[in-house]
Amino acid sequence: MTLIARWTRRIALSLVALVLVAAALPYLVPLRNSVAPLPERPYENSLFAEAGGVRVHAQAWPASNGGSSGRCAFLLVHGFAGSTFSWRQLAPRLAERGHPVLAIDLPGFGYSDRRLWPMDDGEALWTVLEAVRPGARWCLIGHSMGARIAAAVASRRPDRIDAVVYLGGGPLMRGDRDGWRPRVLGALLGLPPVQRWASVVADRTQFNPERFATLLESAYGRTPSAAEVEGYLAPMQVEGTVPAVLGRMTRARADVDEAAIARLPTLLLWGAVDTWVPPRVAQRTRERMPGFQLVEITGAGHNPMETHPAETWRALEGWLGVLPEPVVAASSDAGGRAGAE
After folding, report:
1. Closest-CA residue to 100 (of 12, 185, 162, 169)
2. Half-sphere exposure (Cβ direction) of 198: Cα atoms closer than 13 Å
3. How far apart (Å, rounded) are the C-alpha atoms in residues 21 and 31?
4. DSSP state letter for 20
5. Long-range contacts of 196-202 (CB under 8 A, 24+ apart)
6. Domain-by-domain residue ranges, the chain?
7. Which of the residues 113, 140, 176, 286 has the least number of beta carbons within 10 Å of its own beta carbon?
8. φ, ψ dihedrals at 135, nearest 5°
């Protein structure tokens, strides 16, 4: 064997050893904050449904006094790192107005399974909606990342949708999902050692109250309370959250039928000082969809439904008040067929 061949062999063996060490090392580092189990019943009004074999958690608020005939049920879809906790102030107000309300935890977030459902988001959510309120008419609110998911729901069955609200998120926001970089990133993040490294890094740097408070302050535009930090952080500390979130980040975006959503009564509701998804996104969306109404909440950041609940409610209620009553009445209250386990 020549000198060059011996050195080539040694270098190759050294590289293999380094890869094996790098792959094994993160499993030797214990997780401190990302080990909580999924609770059996997180809230008194929790219910569970299934789509594609994935168990999905939701909170349901029945309409006050049985609701008003013809009023849609509301589906609330949270944003990235959110959960049903994000809707704790808005959902009861909608229920008091006579709308049954269903706030859902997307898989990987909140208290749903840490496995992503195998189908498109729109199809999966219609499976859940039909299990909870078969045949109902729906109004949708999607926040941030949830805006495009709400648009996907509306795209699949626009005949069953009475109104849509995109809150701090554009229904037409797109990413480069077809280039080689996203594919390479997705392939890397699909490797178990890479997922474990990501879990270790997130566990040590993100999933603690101090760091999470900083992130939430950026979204809120003000200092969050300890209860607000705990409400967001607790679901993120469930075991398996990071791999599920990575999967969510790299999966293809839900398909949206622009022509279908353009015909629906739609409100763009935005925080005027949102730095996460700036108001210019709403303005560009409205230029593309001139039939959409745009309302900005003065002084609000990315989560106006939490930081400015009264102002958000006034804008939403005023807009709902001018919508025509639907021809078809909504069906029975949420929770009729899903298992309230």
Report:
1. 162
2. 18
3. 18
4. H
5. 196/26, 196/27, 197/26, 198/242, 198/243, 198/246, 199/26, 199/31, 199/34, 199/242, 199/243, 200/26, 200/29, 200/31, 202/34, 202/242
6. 46-174+255-321, 177-252
7. 176
8. 80, 0
Q: For residue 125, give the amino acid letter.
A: L
Question: Whose structure tokens read 């102002």?
Answer: 311
pLDDT at 26: 62
**Local structure of residue 306 (DSSP, 8 states):** H
Which residue do the tokens 């859940």 mark?
Answer: 128
Structure tokens at 128: 């859940």
- pLDDT tens digits for 158-217? 999 999 999 999 998 654 444 555 556 656 666 777 777 677 777 777 778 998 999 999
Residue 199 confidence (pLDDT): 72
Cα Rg, the chain, nearest whole Å? 22
Segment among 24-28, 137-141, 202-206 with least mean pLDDT: 24-28
- In the chain, the amino acid numbered 242 is V
Phi, psi (rounded to 5 degrees) for 50: -135, 140
pLDDT tens-digit profile of 258-303? 999 999 999 999 999 999 999 999 999 999 999 999 999 999 999 9
The pLDDT, as a whole number, for residue 243 is 83
How does DSSP classify residue 238? B
CATH code for the domain defined by 46-174+255-321: 3.40.50.1820
